[in-house]
Amino acid sequence: MTENEKVPWYEVLQRIDRRIIYLIVLALCSVPFFIPIPVAMEVSPPVQSLFDKIEQIAEQNKSGKEQFVLLAMDWSPSVKAENEPQTAAIIEHMFRKNVRFIILSFYLPEGPRMTETLAEELAKKYDKRYGVDWVNIGYKQVDLPAYLSFIRDMYSIIEKDYRGTPIRDVPMMKKVGSLRDVSLVFEATGSAGYGIWVIYAQPEIRTLEVGVGVTAIVGPSIRPFIDSRQIIGMLEGLSGAAQYEQLLKTRGNATRGMGSQNLAHLWIIVTMALGNIGYFLSKRRERNRKKEVA
Amino acid sequence: MRRYIIIWLTFIGGLYYFLEFVLPAESRMSDAVTEIGKVTLVIGGCSFLLGVINLMRMHTARIALKRPGWYNSVALIVALFAMLIVHLWKFYANAQPGDAIDKVYDLLWNYLRVPIDSTIFSLLAFYIVSAAYRSFRIKSGEAAIMMLAALIVMLGQIPLGQKITLWLKSLETDPQLWWVSRLRFDTVREWLMAVWNGAAQRGILFGALIGSMALSLRIWLSLERGSFFDKRL
Amino acid sequence: METSELLKRRARIELIVVLILGTAICVYIAADCIRYGVKEGFDGFLNRLGVGIAAICTLLIYSFLYRENPFYRLLEHILIGLSVGYSTGVVWTELLKPNWFDKLVGAEGRIPNLLWLLVLVPGVLWYFQLSRKNVWLSRILIMFFMGTGAGLGFRGVFQNLLAERGQITQSFKSILTYSGGSVSFTWFNFDNLLFIVIMLCVLSYFFFSFRHEKNPVLRGSSRLGRYFLMICFGTIFGTTVQGRMSLFIDRLTFLFHDWLGL
C-alpha cells in the first residue's frame, strides 16, 4: 500500500485504538446502573443441586440429628467480585432455613474476615446470633499433615474462634463433635482450594459432601469432579450466584451485576466479529493482489 | 556428604506419610500424625520473615542508591510496617469494633488494601476485551471450533443470550419436536460444559495427576534433575 | 519539531483534564464527608473519607488504561507493602504464637515447655537462603518439605483417581440401560459414550510413548483429541470472559453505588 492510498475500512477495523474499546466497555457496563436490563436466568443443574442439598440438610435437621455446614472461605479481595455474592447467597439460604454453619479458611486469612462482615449484615435481617447460629473459626494456617489431623480430630488444630473465645466455650460448637457432624463443605475459592476436601476429607468421611463456589475461570476444571460426584454442586462465577439468588427469590449484587454482564459479553462478541471481518477481508485483498502480480 | 544428608532427609520426610497411607490402621502409624503435623507446621511458619527481609534488602538498596522510582520503595516500606504494626497492635490490645486502632486497621484494610487489590485485578477485564479483539482470529479449523464453543458458552451464560432461544422451551412437551427444545443456548452450553468440556478436562487431569505422581516419586527418591536440584552444594 | 509541539500540547491538555477532574473529585469527597459528618457524627465522616480514598485509588489505577503513570506504580507498591505486612502479621498471630510461642512460654496458664525451642534449630535453616556460602543448609529444609509433599502426593493422587468416587472409578460409565429385561440406548447412554470417547481421544493426544504417525488409530484419535481440546479451550475462554468482567463490574458497583450513591 502506498502512502497516498487510503486505508481501507476493513484495515481500520483491525486497528481501533484500544482506549476506544475500553471506553465502550466502561460505557456499556455503566448503562444497567441507569437503565434496567432483564436479568432472569435459567438455573443450571449444578446450582440447583447445591440449593437442593441445603434444603435437604434443613429438612433432615427437623427430624434427626443436627447436621452442620462448613464454609471454607478461601477467597481474597482480588476475587471478591464473584465469591462474595456466592457466599452471601449461601449464607442467606442457611439463615432462612436455620442451618447452622462454621466459617474457616486454610489458605487465606482474608476470606473469614470478609465472610464475617457478610454474615453479620445478614444476621441482622434474620435475627441470628454469633456463637449460636454460626461460628467463625478464622484462618488456620495448616500444611497437609496438620490438615490430616484436622480431618480425624477437628479440635486438634482449633483452639479458639475468630474472636479469641476458646472454641469449646462457643455454644454452637458443643453440638459439633467432629467433622462427621458436618454434612456439606461449601468451598468458595478463586483457584483450587477444593482439592483438599475432595481428595483427603471425603474418602475418610463418606457422608461428607462438597459444594463449591468458584470464579468462572475455574468452573470448567471442576466439571470432572461434578461428573464423578466428588463435588455435588457449583456456583460458577457471578452467573452462578445470580441463579442462586433467583432460587432464593432475592435480588442481590449478583443479579444486579448480570445486567452489565449482558452488554459486556455482547460487546466482546462484536469486537471478535469486527476483528475477524477485518482479518478475512484483508486476507482476501492480499490474495487478489498476489494473483494480479502473478 | 552434604548431598547424602539432603537425600536421606528428603526420603525420610516422605517415608512417614507414604507408609502411613499404605500400611493398615493396626500399624498405628496414624497416631503420631497430629503431633508431627503441628511440628512441621511451626517449622514451615518460621520462614515468615524471609519475604520481609528480601523486600527490605531490595528496596532499601533502591532508596540508598536513589534509583528511578525510589519513592515507590519508600511507600512500600511504610505500608508494610504500617500494616504489620497496626495488625499486631490490634491483636495484642484486643481491640473491639469502634476502638481507634480498629478504625486505623479498617482504613488500611477496607479502604486501601481491598479496593487496590480488586481494582488491579479488574484491569484484566479490559485486557481480555483487547485480547479478544486483537488476537482471536479464525486462522484454522481448530480456531473456528474454539470460537464456536466460546460463542455458545458466552451466549448461554447471560440472560439476554438465553432469552434469544427461550421460546424453544415451549416445544418441550411436543411429542415430535421435543428435541428442538434442547437446542437452547443455555441447554447446549450446559451440555458442552458437562460432557465435552468435562471429558476433555478429565483427560487433562489424568495426565496431570500421573505426571505429578511421577514427579513426586522422582523428588522423593532424589532422582530429579534441573537447575535447582543440580545446584552445587 | 511538529511532533514535540503535539506532545507538549497533549501533555498540557492531559494536565488540565487531570486538574479539573481531580479538583471536582476532591470537592465532591469533601462535601460528602461534611454531609455525613453532620448527619452521623465523626464515624460517618471517617467512613465517607475512607470510601473517598478507596474511590481515588480505584480511579488512579484505572488511569493506567490510558497511559502508564507514576500514580499506578505508587499504588502497586503500596499494595505489595500492605499485603506482605498483613501476611507477616497473620503468620505470627495465627500460626506461630498459638502453636509455638504460647506453648514455649506457658501462656494462658499452661506449663512452659522449653522443648519447643528445638523447633528453632530447623526453623532458622530457612534464613540461610540469604547466605551465598551456606545456602545448602536451607536446601535441607526445602528438600525435607518437598519429600513430605511427595509422600503426601501419592495419597492425593491415589485417592483422587481410585477412591469410590474417584476419577478413574467414575469413568466407567454405562453405555446401555438395562430395565425390565430389555436393553435400550437412551440420551443418558449417548452422553456417557460421548464422554468416554472424548476422554480417550484427549488422553491419546497426550500419549507420547508411541509415535502417532506410525499408528493410524492413535493418529486419528489424537487428531480428534486436538479438536475436543479446542472445544474445551473455547469453553474456558467463554467462562474467563465472564470471570474477568465480574471483577470490573464489582468496581463499577462500588463507584456508582457506594461512592456516588446512584
Concise summary:
The complex is a heterotrimer of chains A (294), B (233) and C (262). Helices cover 72% and strands 0% of the residues of chain B. Chain B has 233 residues and is mostly helical.
Task: Tell me the layout of helices and strands.
The complex is a heterotrimer of chains A (294), B (233) and C (262).
Chain A: H1 9-13, H2 18-30, H3 45-63, E1 68-74, H4 80-96, E2 101-105, H5 110-126, E3 134-139, H6 144-152, E4 182-189, H7 195-204, E5 209-214, H8 219-227, E6 233-236, H9 237-247, H10 253-293
Parallel strand pairs in A: 1-2, 1-4, 2-3, 4-5, 5-6
Chain B: H1 2-22, H2 33-45, H3 48-64, H4 70-92, H5 100-134, H6 141-156, H7 159-164, H8 185-220
Chain C: H1 2-40, H2 42-62, H3 70-105, H4 120-123, H5 135-162, E1 177-179, E2 182-184, H6 187-205, H7 216-259
Antiparallel strand pairs in C: 1-2
Helix pairs in contact in C: 1-2, 2-7, 6-7
Characterization of this structure:
The complex is a heterotrimer of chains A (294), B (233) and C (262). Chain A has helices at residues 9-13, 18-30, 45-63, 80-96, 110-126, 144-152, 195-204, 219-227, 237-247, 253-293, and strands spanning 68-74, 101-105, 134-139, 182-189, 209-214, 233-236. Chain A has 294 residues and is α/β, with parallel strands linked by helices. Chain B is mostly helical. In chain B, helix 6 (141-156) packs across helix 8 (185-220). The longest helix of chain B has 36 residues, at 185-220. Chain B is extended. Among the domains of chain C are: 12-85, no CATH class; 186-259, no CATH class. Chain C has helices at residues 2-40, 42-62, 70-105, 120-123, 135-162, 187-205, 216-259, and strands spanning 177-179, 182-184. A two-stranded antiparallel ribbon of chain C has the order 1-2. The two termini of chain C are 47 Å apart. Classes of the chains: A alpha/beta (294), B mainly alpha (233), C mainly alpha (262). Chains in contact: A-B, A-C, B-C.
